[in-house]
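Bug: token stream looks shifted between consecutive jobs. Job 1:
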Amino acid sequence: MCSEPRIVLVDDHALFRGGLKNLLEQIGHCRVVAEAASGEEFLALQPAVECDVVFMDISMPGIDGVETTRRALEADPTLRIVTLSMFGDENYYTRMVEAGASGFLLKDSSIDEVLEAIRCVCEGGTYFSEAILSTLTSQLPGTSDSFDEEALSTRELEILLAVCQGLSNQEIADMLFISKRTVDKHRANILEKTGCKNTASLVVYAIKHSLVDLM
């Protein structure tokens, strides 16, 4: 994880933002560089704020977290967005995966889980609260019976497992003693073969089809 991740909090509840900001700053490993009370406010300030991770509320008045995430990543594809949700937001989860969110947390998560999510997404991986991942895998279409076991090569399955463990392409290359460029190519092939749009959807797909078991 970068030495002091720069965090932006996007949530329409000032008390929640203030509480999370205080917790993060008390820990001392993070720095909250901006806050926004709506999707519109965040999109307006995004060009002027350099940050590593955005904590994004799903359900907000005006532009919701899904559309805000989509627009933010169109403007800056390197941005790492962690979804914040409450029980009752389940209908948004699949849409947030498709929009490109990197992490998924419930709002009642412990500070240790929040810090782990920051670490994972800063290192290029994904993070799912166990409860959210369970909901996601039950929502997505498809079953393990419909998966073609020969669709992915042995090497691609190795790389898929490493991706699901949160390893970056460079870390996978080092582990498998191959070049990062080769990993990039394999990863692109995996996305094409599975029909997934991004890493988060790939993780959900892999668990849904019993290719990996991270739960």
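Job 2, same session, no restart:
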Amino acid sequence: MEEPIAISNLNDFIFCPVSIYFHNLYGAVEKSVYQSTYQTNGSAAHKTIDTGTYSSRKSILQGISVYSEEFGVQGRIDIFDEDKKLLTERKRTVIRIYDGYIFQLYAQYYAMTEMGYDVRRLRIHSITDNKNYDIRLPSEDNEMDEKFRGLITQMRTFDMSGFVQNNAQKCRKCIYEPSCDRSLLC
């Protein structure tokens, strides 16, 4: 059996596959040493989920661990409202809906449905401005579902030794750029 892919790594892989390597490399180091303000704020935004204090309603599941055998992905959800059958991924600030956000939701959706939950709606929530963005289910968006499946395949077959970054903007926004031998900013 292959190692499970962390659901949080789906968005990271799209940003830059090498960032996952550095994230794991720095894993034991105190986060304040290398995280940017964006990552620190993102972690703070998830605090109520991580501590289980977002809601006291029994129908609101928060921060539960999920696993999809079909896709070999594992992680934690943010919020699932059992009454509304609504799975929500929270982001600190949503400027635009990136594919990686949708793929994180899809991975959570597939894991939850395999685990027996009845998920009928998907949503991304922007915490700072309290906006919600409805996301179509994979069965309602074949193009995105195929892209999700392709991403899983890419991640399973990725060879870092052959990777060349071609987007300097990503390097500019990367917290690991000073340590990276593939940076375009040198």
